[in-house]
Amino acid sequence: MAMSIDDKLGVNKFNADMSWSHIDVDKQHPNKEEVRKVVLACPAHLYRLDDDGVTIKFNHEGCLECGTCRVVSGGKVVKKWEHPQGGKGIQFRKG
User: pTM here?
Assistant: First the structure.
């Protein structure tokens, strides 16, 4: 039986660096359309809008390291994106 995408993602292992985020986000970016692009583009749903509809909530711990947020943002909302430091980040278990 074929595994669903959610099943495949569920077997991945994350070794998050709780003291350092490899992504630096402008959580108060004034352009709502730019913020919306990043929120909608992240396949791991790590970007969310706060209840005020303006402030970004961001959690780097489940990052798939695909770089989509960096590309979509163009340096506006995502100010810095690097790969996690050695031994940290995601370990893919299924292709």
Answer: 0.81
